[in-house]
Design goal:
- The protein has about 260 residues and is an alpha+beta fold.
- It has helices at about 10-15, 20-25, 30-40, 40-45, 50-55, 70-75, 185-190; strands spanning about 80, 85-90, 100-105, 110, 120, 130-135, 140-145, 155-170, 175-180, 195, 215, 220-230, 240-245, 255-265.
- Strands 1, 2, 3, 5, 6, 8, 11, 12 and 14 form a nine-stranded antiparallel sheet that branches.
């Protein structure tokens, strides 16, 4: 006799809650009893972030769901906009880890307050009302900062610039990329270990650096850096992803920024 068949449904739910969303879905096809246990709120509440109620309360649109399982798949299949539409949030479908995309309005971009250098415009492919368009600058300095408690604890993350380039872009061949914990490392220290990324759509063959990749949503992305987000109680403060090209007399134009994304790897 299978010992699981004589366990109360609540006990089975509690056991399944220590597995993964994929395991819960697989166990639901074993029997009718397992299906009820695997779809219970006890199980899916464990897969959701502990602060999911607060997250949902920040959504610009109502998030409709009947069960915790419904909410999990709502958040993993369709990102929601938080904080007056300046932050896109969703869950990694396989493990429930938090993913965030900071909009261009949430970034710190040098000279972005001057229309001669940058302007904010709409883009049909963007999930945000506005994207940042680079008209012309010498100093390219883009920073995206997020509190570590906004991300999942005990998880490896990578930060990505999500962008496009216009047909008449210029000067985007090489930028320095770095990620740092603001409370633990200075800007100078981070710059010393920066890696090179290429934002140009057509890079010269002899140019070395991390290349952008095409996304399913019509944008390009390039990895800025990786980091490990430790325990939720650790005082890591904020993590900052930064792109910097400070070469003098080297004009840059044609970069279109949707935002900086933080997602588990």
């Amino acid at each position: 006799m299978n010992p699981f068949t004589i366990l109360p449904e609540g006990c089975i739910s509690e056991i399944i809650s220590f597995t993964t969303p994929a395991d819960a879905l697989r166990s639901s096809v074993i029997s009718r009893g397992f299906k009820c246990a695997a779809e219970s709120d006890v199980v899916w509440d464990k897969f959701l972030p502990s602060d999911h109620q607060h997250i949902v309360s920040r959504s610009v649109s109502p998030v409709v769901f009947d069960t915790k399982k419904d909410l999990y798949f709502r958040l993993s299949e369709s990102p929601i906009l938080l904080d007056e539409g300046k932050l896109s949030f969703w869950l990694d479908k396989t493990n429930g880890k938090k993913c965030c995309l900071l909009s261009s309005r949430q970034l710190t971009i040098s000279f972005s307050d001057t229309q001669l250098f940058w302007e904010y415009t709409s883009d049909a492919d963007s999930r945000f009302p506005e994207v940042a368009f680079l008209n012309n600058v010498d100093l390219l300095d883009i920073r995206g900062k997020i509190g570590t408690r906004e991300l999942s604890s005990r998880a490896n993350y990578a930060a990505y610039l999500v962008f496009k380039v216009s047909e008449k872009y210029h000067g985007l061949e090489s930028s320095n990329a770095m990620v740092r914990f603001v409370n633990q490392e200075s800007e100078d220290e981070a710059e010393e270990r920066a890696t090179t990324v290429i934002l140009a759509a057509r890079a010269p063959r002899n140019l070395k650096g991390r290349l952008p990749e095409k996304r399913n949503d019509g944008w390009l992305e390039v990895e800025i850096g990786k980091f490990y987000n430790g325990e939720s109680g650790d005082d890591n403060g904020a993590v900052e992803a930064r792109l910097l090209d400070s070469r003098p007399f080297h004009a840059k134009c044609g970069l279109i920024i949707e935002g900086i994304e933080f997602r588990p790897i």
